[in-house]
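A reminder before we start the practical. When you read a complex entry, don't treat the lines as separate problems. The point of joint prediction is that each chain is placed relative to the others, so the output describes one connected object in space. Small molecules and nucleic acid strands, if listed, are placed in the same frame. In the example below there are two entries. Take a minute to note the order of the lines before looking further.
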Amino acid sequence: MIQAAEFGFWTQIRKSPYFESTVRWGTKAFSVYNHMFIPRDFGDPEQNFWNLVNDAILCDVAVERQVEITGPDAARFVQMLTPRDLSTMAVGQCRYVLITNAEGGILNDPVLLRLGAAHFWLSLADSDILLWAQGVAVHAGMDVTIREPDVSPLQLQGPKSGMVMQALFGESIADLRYYWLREAELDGIPLIVSRTGWSSELGYELYLRDGARGEELWERIMAAGAPLGLKPGHTSTIRRIEGGMLSYRADADSDTNPFELGLDRLVNLDMEADFIGKAALRRIRAQGPRRRQVGLVIDGAPLPGPNTTFWPVLKDGAVVGKVTSAVHSPRLERNIALAMVSSAHAAVGEAVEVAGPFGRAAATVADRPFHDPAKRTAVAPVPRTA
Amino acid sequence: MIQAAEFGFWTQIRKSPYFESTVRWGTKAFSVYNHMFIPRDFGDPEQNFWNLVNDAILCDVAVERQVEITGPDAARFVQMLTPRDLSTMAVGQCRYVLITNAEGGILNDPVLLRLGAAHFWLSLADSDILLWAQGVAVHAGMDVTIREPDVSPLQLQGPKSGMVMQALFGESIADLRYYWLREAELDGIPLIVSRTGWSSELGYELYLRDGARGEELWERIMAAGAPLGLKPGHTSTIRRIEGGMLSYRADADSDTNPFELGLDRLVNLDMEADFIGKAALRRIRAQGPRRRQVGLVIDGAPLPGPNTTFWPVLKDGAVVGKVTSAVHSPRLERNIALAMVSSAHAAVGEAVEVAGPFGRAAATVADRPFHDPAKRTAVAPVPRTA
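Here is the predicted structure of the whole assembly.
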């Protein structure tokens, strides 16, 4: 098995407005997401994790493309796209939502931003929801405009991100509440800033609204933040698995429904408004999901890196599911994973086995998140032996 | 600027059923297409080109995902997706089609296969047409089923591909006409084979219908073909630019319309059937496209590799367009390119300049294809000086 290979920067895959900046600041490897390059390695993923949880990191997430929905019927159209009840969503708020198809399968798990009464952005995970939304609109008979605006987000995440934001925008930015957004400017660079992210740490996203000014914005933030401990970085696989956060296509796809993921809170089957997938999700809820996503703690030596294939989960020798995301947490000193298993084996404490490149390893179903600074830590770190 | 970087094989990006085989047979680099890895380098792209034009190559193009459309209204639904008149398309035929949105912009340029009266596959370029088609269907009021089947194509391309096909399937396969398909089996492996490809050479595609048997199929074809000169390979940027073939996202995107590409033959605005984008394309045709795709011959030293950014095209110092795909053709001994330029500068013979990493170079608008074995060669090779 090869772990990595050379990679050509074809024009068929887009570059972010921050591309040259991230290369200058030490990006070692990219992945591809929404048909764009995304930095995924600055040389040491474990150091990137510690930078994130102890200080702050700046991440190029321009791959989170926005689908902009405007027009007189925008609010009604957006509600049609998601099972989450949006009736109480205020202008200036953000919501984590699921986009479901007619079968109740998950097409994406974006953050929805409400910029105006009839002005929404879906900040996407990795699938072409622009095509989905435009396709739905063809025969919907609603007056909406759906396009991809010139918007490229950065994530500023970690406990010191608040200080960096104050250095950039002044003290008043401290008032920005969790999952709210605000218009802002930096040296005349037009931005939306929100208190959102993908790290389970204090964090912000800065949505650049002029792609020509990407390098200027990146350098401006690094200059303000470096004295406060800010490092260039990338979304952390370790931290997001600790936090039990989904990576679409790894942990969920269009054959996955919200109940399998335990995301019942994002589905309102009782609201009056209709949405795509409502009938199917009613059926699925009535029957109960056949599979459930669980956390797993996998015994054995520290994993050298994230899994590159789906690993079978076994019970008494029979396959009962698959590990979708696994990594070694240097903080918990455990191998932690997200897995999709049959509902019969989804109870916390259930003993199973995982078949990976290491052979077979014992594993135990565990609570998610594995680590939550605001609450308890579900999985205690292994005590260091002196 | 960096040309390549390490690349992690996350589970977020899918692997083809041929992945392990292509690694065993020497893949050096991958790209990502339709959320999957695709081999793009076996060590020497120029040798791959000569293998293709002189012998035959086997290419993993499982990234060409299929959107399967079945059901009583399948034919009517498929016609709604494309401006090409499908009224004369027989069962067993293939057609190169464009998928357009309501504004007439191109969402994809797939090969459409008609497997039955009410059974179609769209064999995709790089965008989620599964979501587009499912989205359109939500309110279309038609009885169709739209899904991604377990189908993974291989391309067998080059002048000797016919001999390899006969070694595999017997002499009768020689009857398969250009852009027709046939059901077939190889050691019980279920296949569709078609005389299609992306090389402008004699070629076939083999659509594997059981992802579990990918490595078996790959090895079976290589074993039969190697004595006839078959090599493992990848789609050739050199050959496809010589042939003037589009790479979606590089040469066209959702802001590109068919008339800009000179693909009027794929648009029938006079047929009775309605399709998405018809009104917009009527407007665009009446006004005439503002831009046109052209071929360019770029002077100067041989390009070291394909362009990694869009290069500005200039006339009298002003930007009038962009080079979308450029490469050195070792056969024509010229730097050849596809470019999108304003209609005023699109006539064959027009002298322009191109700004690239080499500085500024003189360039001339040229006929496409640059090379067509069946016809004349539009651009004569530079005579070798003795």
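Discuss with your neighbour: DSSP finds eight helices and 21 strands in chain A. What might explain this?
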